[in-house]
Amino acid sequence: MAKPLILASTSPYKKKLLERLKISFTCASPNTNEQPTSNEKPQALALRLAQEKALAVAKSHPEAIIIGSDQVGQHNGNILNKPGNFDHAFKQLSAQSGQTVYFHSAIAVVSTLKTGEISKKTALNTTKVVFKGLTNQQIEHYLKTEQTFDCAGSFKSEGLGISLFSRIESSDPTSLIGLPLISLCSILEDFGFEILSTKKE
Fold first, then answer.
1. Alpha-carbon gap, residue 49 to 61, rounded angstroms
2. pLDDT digits (tens, 9 = 90+) for 119-141
3. Which of 70, 87, 172, 190 is catalytic?
4. Global pTM?
5. What is d(CA 123, CA 73) in angstroms, rounded to the nearest whole number?
6. Could you confirm whether 190 is annotated as catalytic?
7. Bridge partner list, 65
């Protein structure tokens, strides 16, 4: 029988994404520090945080397979934070207008072996987002409609946010939402968790 699956996140967006796979899982908060270290690159930050989240939950759930994930936005070499309010979101979208922004989505899947050792696999997917030239009125209308103050980059690509872009380049359409499912399916199968299994639990 396959080990239980735990998503090391309380994000409703990631939970909804994982539900697409029609598999049984629970969620747990990793309670980790998400601050970057000095001179840490966005890709390295995303991978480190994904691993730290998975390992934090694995400590209290050694019987399970744990999925950790993290996404880091990057604009002009700078890391994008969650805006938190309308004014910060407006400034963030204004700065991204007509610009190219990169979103690095990392996953880490860990499982505790009978020996006590940790088995771990990671993946990183980068999505290139090219924003349209946006007017102040368009940005204001968008933010009043979706209120994306808890989203890095100040948009939801699965909603009206898709209208902000002129182009998206990615090997995984779910990566921009925060959980690259193509890579995740492959890794889970490496751990013996069959996504398309016809066997009953």
1. 18
2. 999 999 999 999 999 999 999 99
3. 70
4. 0.90
5. 16
6. no
7. 5, 111
